[in-house]
Amino acid sequence: MYYFIINPRSRSGKGQEIWDNVKKRLDEENLEYEAYFTQRQGHAAELAHQIAALSIPCTLVVVGGDGTANEVVNGLVKTVYTHITLGYIPTGSGNDFARGLGLTKDTKKAVEQILAPACIEKMDIGIAQSDKEKRYFLISAGIGFDASICHEALHSGLKDLLNRYGLGKLTYAAIALKQLFLYRPCPVDIRLDKKRISRFPRCFFVAGMNLKYEGGGCKFCPDADHSDGKIHICVAGKLSKLKILTMLPTAFIGKHIWFKGIQIEQGHVVEIISRRPLPVHCDGESFGFRSSLSLRTAPEQISVITG
């Protein structure tokens, strides 16, 4: 059985157009499927939970962007999800989930792979926790400057404008320039696996990565492995704003790691303490402002069609 959760408003309405093409292909094959359209924020999580709660072995396909995929996984984790195989047809502007797993962006090819998968991989699900609140993620969770960019992008008219011209991922670059001038770095302490503590008197951001990319293609952790049970982190510490401005473009090819002030680490549990509450994101979705944040992976992996 196939279930589809579609965000028709992704990429300024491009999601509906892509779904129309997918539906045509499914109907040609006379396949049994059910399709559900998201109508509001959080709706994809509700739909995913309802589908998983049926306990029927099935393929659940997300037709949307990274935010829709994040909502779906946050719905799945509310119940048993080991009987679910996740498929993905990217229609967003950032598409870091597809990029990180090497998924095709060609809709026709994506449908063929979902209908006759040649490769299904197990993938970690990340957990971001602050006090008693949790949010799950597939791509990354970040605190500080990178999260401030995500927070603004969620409500940016610029994103809608650029999406109309197929330039949505430039949203993050444009907002990053603005936020760079406004953002004040903050002292941060990081503890890995409840042992080693690193102190950063001046920290711009900590990106906790499950996949290699976030922010529309920034390869913050080139060695991140989505099935190793670890959170890989990129810390931007003692850098001037000019250095940050120089460093960010190199992150798209993973060369930022050579900058003094950039630190790459990994651990099963990453604990972050900041001097003041900082913005936090999970897969680009807001997780509020936090002064403490713990990152780890969930006990159960999820099956994802990757080829």
TrEMBL record:
Entry keywords, A to Z: ATP-binding, Kinase, Lipid biosynthesis, Lipid metabolism, Nucleotide-binding, Phospholipid biosynthesis, Phospholipid metabolism, Transferase
Family indicated by similarity: Belongs to the diacylglycerol/lipid kinase family.
InterPro entries: ATP-NAD_kinase_N, Diacylglycerol/lipid_kinase, Diacylglycerol_kinase_cat_dom, Lipid_Phosphate_FormReg, NAD/diacylglycerol_kinase_sf, YegS/DAGK_C
Cofactor: Mg(2+)
Name recorded for this polypeptide: Diacylglycerol kinase
Pfam families xrefs: DAGK_cat, YegS_C
SUPFAM superfamilies cross-referenced by the UniProt entry: NAD kinase/diacylglycerol kinase-like
Any GO BP annotation: phospholipid biosynthetic process
